[in-house]
Write a structure and sequence with these properties.
Layout lengths: L2 E6 L4 H5 L3 H8 L3 E6 L2 H8 L9 H18 L15 H13 L4 H13 L8 H10 L11 H17 L7 E4 L3 E4 L4 H8 L4
Parallel strand pairs: 1-2
Antiparallel strand pairs: 1-3, 3-4
Helix pairs in contact: 5-6, 5-8, 6-7
Length: 199
């Protein structure tokens, strides 16, 4: 059975556009998943990337068109300029880390609820009430938003270091069995084919 390390950022529009397709692919192939939220801006700085605010206008304009096109293609609600972006991604990431440790809910649904809050619902995922609502929606105890903060912070920082060591440079990023790397929501079909043994 394959294992997938899933590196992502709770502020990433491309992670949002992955929707729940990744979870469906993992379930189809019986793959286990470790969810690894990280600070994608810090990752850019470590791996030669440029944060969106510092990119050349040509890249900014293309990104704006491409995000809207991909959202339409996937039939997903999407706001190119959400009211609460960027915001502090750490609290939502800590909650996901705590939920993964606690179990009992649907982790993929939690990740998607947090991302949907940013990119479709005009909510601030740095706010405690927003995080608790996402936890509840995904079947987790909302008090997880207040627990394990030190452990969450340590894991969040460790995920970044691990990502750099494993060749990650963006989000979403999927690594199968510690070796095969797939970057971006537009590579999910390739991930599916790889898990099927066709690629």
């Amino acid at each position: 059975m394959a294992h997938i390390d899933y590196y992502f950022a709770t502020l990433s529009p491309y992670t949002y556009l992955a929707g729940t397709r990744f979870e469906a692919i993992a379930a189809k192939h019986g793959a286990s998943v470790s969810y690894k939220p990280l600070d994608v801006v810090a990752l850019f700085g470590r791996t030669g990337g440029t944060p969106p605010k510092d990119r050349h206008p040509n890249r900014v304009q293309y990104r704006a068109q491409e995000l809207v096109r991909q959202a339409k293609k996937l039939d997903m609600p999407f706001n190119l300029k959400p009211a609460h972006w960027p915001t502090n991604a750490a609290p939502s990431s800590y909650a996901i880390i705590a939920a993964q440790a606690a179990g009992g809910g649907d982790l993929g649904a939690l990740v998607h609820a947090v991302l949907r809050a940013v990119w479709a619902e005009e909510k601030d995922i740095a706010q405690d009430d927003v995080i608790k609502a996402c936890l509840s929606e995904a079947g987790f105890d909302p008090s997880l938003a207040d627990s394990g903060l030190l452990s969450g912070a340590e894991t969040y920082a460790r995920n970044l270091e691990e990502a750099v060591d494993k060749g990650v440079f963006g989000a979403p990023f999927y690594i199968v069995d510690g070796d095969q790397r797939f970057w971006g929501q537009d590579k999910l079909d390739d991930l599916d084919m790889h898990l099927s043994g066709d690629l």
